[in-house]
Design a protein that fits this description.
about 850 residues; alpha/beta; Rossmann fold; Aspartate Aminotransferase, domain 1; Aspartate Aminotransferase, domain 2; 25 helices; about 35% helix; EC 2.6.1.62 (chains A, B); Aminotrans_3 (chains A, B); dethiobiotin synthase activity (chains A, B); transferase (chains A, B); pyridoxal phosphate (chains A, B)
Chain lengths: ~850, ~850
């Protein structure tokens, strides 16, 4: 049949061509929202429900209360269509002056200075305000106006008192009374999301001036919550980086319960906090089911019916409604204070109740705790200096899990909500449900392509590794005839000791089994792991790194050979290192004989080598070291020849972390078993998978349940995680979604500016750089106790970078930037430039 | 200030009193949806957008295609207000007959038999249809009518052919043209959700008769997606148990983009699949941004403008629109076939790619795989017998994680979506964000009340246990002077061997460290765990169980004492067993000396006992054994006297699983460390927490990072899990939300019918019953290979119960029912009665 699903179908067979998909754009500046006074976003569930009536009522309530106290109110209308016939800021401006005049009768001292502004407009909208022939400056078809009008309502004896102040601002106006995206298109007046956000921020910063007044601010959206803004981005997405608290103007008419609830849910699905719902009374008591739906956790306020007569000046209506607006104002002020108080109290409460992993609490006094209010794409929104929420680039990619940009984050939230609603969690064994099946198949077609046949789900990297080890040992036992013996006699006593072959510096997780597969380190002593023995044979690997503009090879002791000269030890580019043709090099032969020699030295009394386990290409927790991929490939081949099962620990490296979907692609060889986690869900919730070949699977098949793999966690293959994973796996490799992927590519484009990276590598304060895929790691020159995992050497540098809006967490004297697979190179390089600047300062300060 | 947040505020100070909170009610029957033909729900984003025009168009398209093929179309309108002036089923009925007459001009053979029905109506709505004085039967104020009308459009030469068939049914009608919940209230005609669902199901079953025809069915909702139904439940919640695929009629007007997107998101947040969006053309090309938002994955269809003239018979409009309706019909037919095909293919695909935990794949051929389409509260919706989706009670409570009823599930989905949108995931160490803080504090105030001071987050029970063991051993080392030595000399060689004290039959998780803390069992042999040593000293505990109407105590070998007689060995009630006054019994003394004696026998050469670890009261995976709580309490006291840290493994028992928030309450004593998981997130996603006292925490404080607890998982304290946990922890113990909690209670009400439980306990086929909180476990009498974990003895019983709509997973010859903390006793007892009936059959079949 016809594939209709990708088409728009119109009755008149006119086919609409889609423009670029909508996306949430984050600004290039780190955005900041002041917390010195309340700022609210006014939303509504549909157009024409009275957002501006509410803004006006709030302005009136705010300015009129306590007449002796000087107050200011900022009303911002970022986007106005139908201008000049429709101008919400003019409505607020003119109603407020009328209300002030009326109010003066009651409060003779009350005085007000009101102004109304228009910053930019399309040519047609600007025409009415410009004298013919007046000079016009255009940017993207929008005319710079900076037009304003002003009115003063003077109170009795108010000669010397400064008046209260109202500032109304329309940021952008178009003439057509249609949705902003249409008006912008029709009038050739475009505004990018980032420009709009920056203008909002600037208006919020300027506010109403720096006078000593009580400020209050509302930003009024256009149309409904999900109406497109000028660029076509939905407004709920567009304003998301600010995440201002919200007032929702609901619908009191027939059908309005549904529209209000749906709009509320759209806001929640963008991470907004709705502080109150307010709606007009249409006699249908819609507020009752709404309050019930909200379980009384969000107040619902009802305004009196608005006069239908268009000539009504609404003065009486505002009189009738003033108690509702006063209550709403009280709710908003109180929610604001509570929020600020909560943000201020959080560090204290955190150090009282948390026990952070990998953290010496002595080093984290209250003042060092970062309060994260939210995240949007690659950025945290952080509570800073006690009076603002500001963006910080999440350079630790939230501890190596993080993937989505703002657009994918929103899509993931919706899909995750859907999965929670459709499945919650359902038991996995012997069952099938769509997300688990979809995810398993995507894994096998993607990171498991050409080798894996089975997906075993668990919860995190450590459990995925423990499962992998059980699989490998069973396979080894099966292949080497140990199984029959052990089945005959189910005691453990007569069974051989199995160990892993692994590399020094690799790290596979924190549970005991995963720990046993790593070499002794600061993580494994009695202090940390009383039960750790180190059940492995651990080889020192050769590593590669960028230093002084050159990629260098560093060989471990015992691998130096007279056949090697400088030529063998350096590479012009990273691609040379990753090239498979190195298999034919002298070095490959040297590696091979080194490995054989080492293996022959391992005494059988210490056990049988039952598995090889490696982190392909990059040792993550071990300090971001790049292992020579040729060495790992030779090692894999040696083990395969000896029928030793091969495990790739791709928990860190998988899903484009290193620029390819699987790091096995960089190694040009396959494992028998591989473990995935972290980025698998796009960086949202824990899920992991151990993939295996059918040959491994078959060693668990038999006539008894006791022969099956008896390892599982309650939430195995949980539907919510599998849904997030399926979405992210698809998204990351889809060139229509991820701009870093070329249409036929299996490789991310280069994310870190090559020139800058080389510059850093040749800096005297820098020991080495490793840059690959989403990772840019930098080891600082450090000696003695300044080096190593326990070192605090980088902490001052890290602190300064947080001031710059870059949130890092060092690994001792190694710092790194990490982004998501969709992050634009522009964002990466902004962060990298900040790092470079601070590095220069840092290394100067170290020299002094 | 005034606490306004819990109030509804109206301009006229009239305060509305809320009726009962809305909730999603599941029917008492297991609901079934046929899959033999397409059935769709027609939704719209607001009222009056043309749902009925669309239903009519679909009916016309369906009935007129392939005139020689006999077709039938069922149109269901469950809820109609404004009757009889508004009757959507009458509209469909009358338009279709007109269209059929018109159509006959083109297709002379076409013939149609159409009928329109009304089942029940409020008195005022019924009045117009009833002759005065006609007998009336009322139920809850709704009059039984079963009224119908019929029309026939005969085709040429169609004398012998059966005509195509249209059946239009209004299920419930009210007179007032307002929202159904208001109409029902005003007209005193109430309909419970469950009654409505059962009527829908019955109508769907009867359909249009059993003739050999191509059937098609639409169910048209009233108002918008979240408009209340007659009981006040939102319709998107009300119809959720069926989870029928959806058509969304969107809004083509100004503001309609937003309303349509929000309505779509409301449906997604209930787990619905929207197959297509259709909207009327208002010249604003709303379809372009909609298609962009939907990323072309859901087709958007545009209908021609509907004539404004109310006297227009729409015949020409339907002519204009017919290609859109034909396309929509094609999309719906194709989505239906794809869905059925997918459901049919899933078992085959599952056995090809999955590797299920704890599953011998040999025993799970394709035919044994359960396809779970969704869950709603306590029920799975399962694809059954190849032609229906039917409800099954999730008696394994999705492997011991499950908590929410349908209402909480919806709330959790919204909160989870919100957390994903607000935070995605953000890094935890040294940071604070609201959900983590809220969750940590709720844990300390709840399950950690009066003893715990710190929360350590991880991902699942196993990791929580590994962390607990590390904490306990450090504390022990600290208290017993081992720490200084080990710090002096960081080698592992000189450190003592530490072991745990634990009970035989307890189970603490599947990672190696957790495994080492359990006694050797079928899970721990070389075949499963080559690295397992069993690093513990394991005691046999006394157990208690219900058998033959009496609670019995079973003592392990070595604990029999001449002081014990039958009187000591039986209890009249479970409360007697849990009573703390037993501390003063002879048995307490016997236990104490037994434990001391055992401990004294443990040779120091085997290590130092560095921790006690127990599952309080119930050994879960070990076979649902109830350990004598007195014994565990005595054991805890003995260890405390020896300064051995005490760990409670509450991963299974925590959060009301056993009727109290923490099982420690049943033991009447506190641990130093406790582990929680599973139910912590209400049964949605993995999260776990290890709680500890400040004394334990302090043993990790020092001047080096290397002294900190270096164990953590990437998603530690992930915001989405913490949000779900905070919601669930609060919900379960809130008597306003959870009907099983009394207003001041810390105990769930009894969920399993006592009489029936005792009856089962005295059945000859039953060895023992353990019933406590949400758990009802039953051990079948079984000998030899029929007993134990590997046994398949219960499989035929389990299979039969699945036919009855009860989904169980046995633990060998132990079967169990498990519900959530909010599940109504009615649902529990329905399931238990089914078990009893099948047990009788089963035990008879075993005798034969």
């Amino acid at each position: 049949m016809l594939r209709l699903s990708s088409l728009l179908l119109r009755h008149n067979r006119h086919r609409c061509h889609l423009t670029k998909p909508f996306s949430t754009t984050t600004s290039s500046l780190p955005l900041t929202v002041p917390l010195s006074h309340p700022i609210y976003l006014i939303w509504s569930s549909n157009t024409s429900l009275g957002k501006t009536l509410v803004s006006t009522g709030l302005a009136s309530s705010s300015l009129r209360s306590h007449p002796r106290r000087r107050r200011s109110f900022l009303y911002l209308k970022p986007v106005q269509t139908g201008f000049p016939a429709d101008s919400d800021s003019r409505f607020v401006f003119s109603k407020l002056t009328s209300l002030a005049l009326r109010h003066r009768r009651l409060s003779p001292h009350f005085s007000l200075l009101a102004s109304n502004h228009l910053l930019k407009a399309s040519a047609s909208a600007a025409a009415s305000l410009l004298a013919p022939g007046a000079p016009r400056i255009y940017e993207n078809g929008m005319c710079h106006l900076d037009w304003s009008e002003e009115r003063r309502v003077a109170g009795e004896n108010s000669g010397n008192d400064e008046p209260s102040k109202l500032v109304c601002k329309t940021m952008y106006a178009w003439g057509d009374a249609v949705s902003p995206h249409l008006a912008a298109e029709r009038e050739n007046g475009a505004v990018e999301d980032s420009a709009l956000l920056e203008t909002v921020q600037r208006c919020l910063e300027i506010g109403v001036g720096k006078e000593n007044m009580d400020h209050f601010c509302v930003v009024e959206t256009a149309g409904g919550v999900a109406s497109p803004g000028p660029s076509g981005s939905l407004q709920c997405d567009l304003y998301r980086p600010f995440r201002l608290p919200a007032i929702l103007v609901g619908d009191g008419r027939l059908g309005g319960i549904s529209g209000t609830i749906s709009a509320y849910e759209t806001l929640k699905l963008r991470g907004y906090d709705v502080v109150a719902v307010v709606l007009e009374d249409h006699g249908l008591v819609n507020e009752v089911p709404l309050a019930s739906y909200l379980r009384n956790s969000v107040p619902v306020l009802v305004l009196p019916p608005v006069p239908q007569d268009l000539s009504d000046d609404l003065m009486e209506w505002y009189d009738d409604a003033h108690n509702v607006f006063d209550s709403l104002m009280e709710i908003m002020l109180s929610a604001y204070s509570e929020r600020v108080k909560r943000l201020r109290d959080m560090p204290k409460r955190a150090v009282d109740v948390f026990w952070w992993p990998f953290t010496q609490h002595t080093f984290v006094p209250e003042g060092n705790v970062t309060v994260i209010d939210s995240r949007c794409g690659e950025n945290f929104a952080v509570f800073k200096n006690d009076d603002a929420i500001t963006e910080q680039f999440d350079a630790c990619a939230s501890w190596w899990t993080q993937g989505p940009d703002a657009t994918l984050q929103t899509e993931l939230a919706r899909d995750i909500g859907y999965a929670a609603a459709r499945f919650g969690h359902v038991m996995f064994p012997e069952n099938v449900y769509e997300p688990a099946l979809e995810c398993a198949e995507l894994l096998l077609e993607g990171v498991g392509k050409d080798w894996a046949s089975r997906t075993y789900f668990s919860d995190n990297g450590s459990t995925a590794i423990e499962i992998a080890l059980k699989m490998a040992f069973r396979k080894f036992s099966y292949d080497h005839g140990l199984l029959l013996e052990s089945l005959k006699d189910n005691s453990t006593e007569r069974c051989p000791e199995l160990v892993v072959l692994a590399l020094n510096g690799s790290y596979h997780g924190d549970t005991l089994g995963a720990m046993e597969a790593q070499a002794p380190s600061c993580y494994t002593g009695f202090l940390q792991q009383p039960w750790y023995k180190g059940r492995g044979f651990f080889l020192d690997p050769p590593t590669v790194f960028l230093s002084k503009n050159m990629w260098n090879l560093s060989l471990p002791e015992g691998l130096h050979s007279p056949d090697l000269n400088v030529k063998n030890m350096t590479f012009c580019s990273r691609d040379d290192i990753l090239n498979k043709s190195r298999d034919n090099s002298d070095l490959a032969v040297i590696y091979s004989s080194f490995i054989s020699h080492q293996l022959s030295k391992f005494p059988e009394s210490k056990g049988l080598i039952g598995a090889l386990i490696i982190e392909p290409v990059i040792h993550g927790a071990g300090g971001m070291h790049m292992v020579d991929p040729l060495f790992q490939r030779v090692l894999v081949n040696e083990c395969r020849n000896k029928n030793i099962p091969i495990i790739f620990d791709e928990v860190f490296t998988g899903f484009w972390r290193l620029g390819t979907e699987s790091a096995a692609e960089l190694l040009h060889c396959f494992p028998d078993i591989a473990c995935f986690g972290k980025l698998i869900t796009g960086g949202t919730i824990p899920l992991s998978a151990t993939l295996a070949t059918n040959a491994v699977f078959d060693s668990f098949i038999g006539d008894s349940k006791l022969k099956a793999l008896l390892h599982g966690h309650s939430y195995s293959a949980h539907a919510i995680g599998c849904t997030a994973a399926a979405k992210s796996i698809r998204w990351f490799k889809d060139s229509d979604r991820n701009p870093n992927i070329s249409s036929k590519g299996s490789l991310l484009r280069e994310l870190w500016d090559n020139k800058l990276v080389y510059q850093i590598s040749s800096h005297p304060g820098i020991k080495r750089v490793v840059v690959l895929g989403t990772l840019c790691a930098i080891e600082l020159q450090a000696q003695g106790c300044n080096a190593g995992y326990g070192s605090l050497y980088a902490s001052s540098l890290v602190k300064q970078l947080r001031e710059d809006g870059v949130y890092m967490r060092p690994l001792g004297n190694v710092i790194y930037l990490m982004c998501g697979p969709c992050t634009s190179p522009k964002i990466c390089n902004q962060a990298l430039r900040k790092v470079y600047r601070r590095l220069e300062e840092f290394s100067q300060s170290q020299q002094n």
